[in-house]
Structures are given as structure tokens and as C-alpha cells.
């Protein structure tokens, strides 16, 4: 039976041992809470704040990037509009200069045409005057020949033929 008595001691429940184990567990929990849980919670809180700050910085950078993108697009649109206006203005100036050149060319052509008409009119008047002079000389020559000779109808026809031939030369 001795064997049983030792076994019972081994299997017996000792309340002091249980209380000591619970006390040790409480002390361990308090020590872990003070030296482990609080620092770990502080580190987790700091990490959370850093992550929050990082997200806030990222959101701020994103909003700034969007604002700069909008500004860039606005400037790009303004530049396109200005380029369109410059092209339109250049086209209008080119059309105006073209119209001016055409107008000047038309005026010059009209002036030259009038000058040519005047030259033609002067040449016609000069030719008419020369023809009158030539006809006058022929008439005078004919009159001299007629006065110098007695005219019969045959001689008269010959004189007219000679006068016509000399006009042709």
C-alpha cells in the first residue's frame, strides 16, 4: 500500500500549488503587459500614424499632381488656341496682301493698257497725218503734171493709175 500512498501524493490536488501557479501567471501577465504589450502597442500606434501620414502625403501629392495636370492641360489648350489664332491671323494677312498685290497688278495693267491705247491713238493720228501729207504731195504732183500736160481721157487714166501705184509703194 505504500505504493498507493505515494501515488496519491502525486495525484493529489494541492491548492497552494494552484494558487501559486495562478499568482505566477498573473505576475507574468503584468510583467508582459508592462514590458511587452505596451511597447508593442506603442510601436503599432506609431506605425499606424506613419502609415496614415504616408497615405495623407500620397493623397496630397496626388491632388497636387492632378492640379498640375489640369494647369498643364489648360496651358496646352491655351497654346493650341494661340497657335490657331496666329495661323488665322497669318492667313488673313496673306489674303489681304494677296488682294493688295492683285489690286496693284490690275491697276498697273489698266494703266499700261491706257498708255498703250494712248500710244496707239497717237500712232494712228501720226499715220493719218503722214498719209494726209503724202496724199497732199501726190495731189500737188498730180496737179503739176496735169497743169504741165494737156489731159485727155487716156492720159488722165494713166495718171490715176500711176498715182494709185505710187500709193501702194
What can be said about this structure in brief?
With 169 residues, the protein is mainly α. It has helices at 2-11, 15-148, 153-168.
Describe the structure.
This protein has 169 residues and is mainly alpha-helical. It has one domain (2-168). Helices cover 95% and strands 0% of the residues. It is built from three helices and no strands. It is rod-shaped and about 195 Å long. The mean pLDDT is 83.
Termini distance? 183 Å
Dominant shape: rod-shaped
Number of strands: 0
Which H/E pattern describes the elements? HHH
The residue ranges in which pLDDT falls below 50 over 5 or more consecutive positions are none
Mean pLDDT equals 83
Number of domains: 1
| Proportion of helical residues | over 70%
Question: Which key terms come to mind for this protein?
Answer:
single chain; 169 residues; mainly alpha; 95% helix
